[in-house]
Amino acid sequence: MSESNLPQPDSAVTASAMGRALHALTTLLPALGEGSHQLSLSAERTDGLELSADLDVSAEPGAWRVDQSAEEYLRFFVLLTFSLEGTTVRDASLGALTADAGTRVHGWNVQDGWLHPIAPAELQMVATAFPTDDASPYTVGDALVLPPPHADE
Q1: 24-49 per-position pLDDT tens digit
Q2: What's the burial of 129, exposed, middle or buried (CB within 10 Å: 0-12/13-18/19+)?
Q3: Chain-centroid distance, C-alpha 119
Q4: CB–CB of 65/58 below 8 Å?
Q5: How far is 122 from 13, CA to CA, in rounded Å?
Q6: Cβ pair 126, 134 in contact under 8 A
Q7: Could you give the angle at which helices 11-32 and 70-85 cross, rounded to 10 degrees?
Q8: 61-115: per-residue pLDDT in tens?
Q9: Could you give the CA distance from residue 17 to residue 23 in angstroms, rounded to a whole number?
């Protein structure tokens, strides 16, 4: 197996991206509200390799729970971190599928080190990748605007 020619990100830059990834999750999950959420992250590395990671989360008032193994959570968190860091990832997007009284879909693109909402028309095209059943059709709406962390975080 050949060595990757990906650039090596600076450790301070990576630490900053880890803080943004943690902030993104702690901002996103309460904003999505109660219910079962499937987060799907897709990224294209600068060498063209496409990666993805999913995270299933349950949210109830004042608490949320990851419904997967620690390894799966870590894979998702690392991919989110490097997507936000940007040195080794060229393109990334995050989708959230929420099952409650219907199925809601929201999405964000990674730009300039943060998650920016995907417009509903664009998201409608992306949402076709999620499985659905006739009993619970999708509702595609405006993605939530997630406040970025302060510059000193």
Answers
A1: 999 998 888 888 999 999 999 999 99
A2: exposed
A3: 16
A4: yes
A5: 31
A6: no
A7: 110
A8: 888 899 999 999 999 999 999 999 989 999 999 999 887 767 788 899 999 999 9
A9: 10
The model carries a pTM of 0.84
The answer to whether the beta carbons of residues 65 and 57 sit under 8 Å apart is yes
Name the maximum alpha-carbon separation found in the chain.
49
Residue 76: phi, psi to the nearest 5?
-65, -45
Please state the φ and ψ torsions of residue 120, each to the nearest 5 degrees: -55, -40
Q: Which of 146, 150, 151 is nearest to 27 (CA)?
A: 146
Residue 140 has phi, psi (to 5 degrees) of -100, 125
Distances (CA, A) of 69 to 30, 75, 95, 127: 21, 10, 20, 26
